Structures are given as structure tokens and as C-alpha cells.
Fold:
Amino acid sequence: MALMDLEHCPLLDELMHDLHQLVVKEILSHYPSNYKQSAVIPLLDLAQQQHGGWLPVSAMNEIARVIEVAPIRACMKSQTFYSMFNRTKVGKYHLLVCGTTPCMIRGSRDIEDALLKHLGVKRNEVTKDGLFSVGEMECMGCCVNAPMIAVADYSKGSEGYTYNYYEDVTPKRVVGDSGDVEKRRSSSDGTKP
Ligand code: FES
Structure:
């Protein structure tokens, strides 16, 4: 008997839809009913997790409908203000280079250039294998160890995504043969533990 294609199973889609509705209800229950808009950040966070690390416009429109505000008022403003919300698709590992002055003075542009060249993408493009994308984040609060990068890891799904921060990075440390990028690529395709 052929195995059911779970990714395209209508019953599973329906169950996931019901589950998401319950989570949305639970989030809204934390706020007075006349202040539904206060739930905008947790709802954007939930939607981003459900979409593999980014927020399509359709998700923001749906959130605006649920919290009864105009999309531009809360969703667009919040999503464009907080750099942890992504407006375009990102890779399983989204590499964020600090773009604030102390890190720039200490060479963060060279780090970004090395990453883009090594991966063969432009900023905010995803590599063909879907593993990596490169973006920018403002000050990560560790300027004393500039330049900094953060790696947002969406490989563990909606419940387990992580942000890891790396200090004193150099182009060699991130893109060399034993650099962080190749280590993550190897661990993702199973060629190394
Ligand atoms: S400027 Fe990069 S961590 Fe503060």
C-alpha cells in the first residue's frame, strides 16, 4: 500500500487549521476583548513560525482581520519595525550580519561580502538548496565583540527555532572550509555528525 503523502493530506490540513485556530484563541485570551490589537506581536510570531520563518502578506491580512485593525496600522508597522520578522522567504539558516556602526567599523561589510560570494546569492535571496539566506540585523547588544552575526535556525519547526550569536567573526571563520557555513551544510545533508 502506498504511503499517504502527509504534506498534501486534506485531513491533516484540516487538523492543522483547527489546531492553529485553538492557538490563536489561546493567544487572544491573554488580552481584554477590546484590546485585541495588543496580540499583534505573538500572532505575527506564530504566523512566521507556521510559514517556515517568513510572513506572507496574506498572513498579515488574516491577523489584521482577527484583531480588527487595518493591515497597515498594526501588522505592516510592527513587521517592518522588528528585524526578527522577515518579509521575504528565508533559508533554513538565516545568517544575519550586524549593520550598525561599531560592527561596520570592525568589518561587518567584509563578512557580508564573503558570505554572499561564498553562497552565490544577493542579500535576502535563498540558496538553491534552501539552506541559507543572508540578511541584516541592527545592533545585537554585543558591540565590544564586534563584528557580530546571528544565525536564525528554522530547522526545528515552529516550536524549536533558535537564534545563535557569534562574536569576533572573520570572513575565514564563517566561510572557510571548516567555517560555520560549511559545518551547518554538512550537518544538514548528513555527511557529518
Ligand atoms: S553594533 Fe554590532 S553588536 Fe552592536
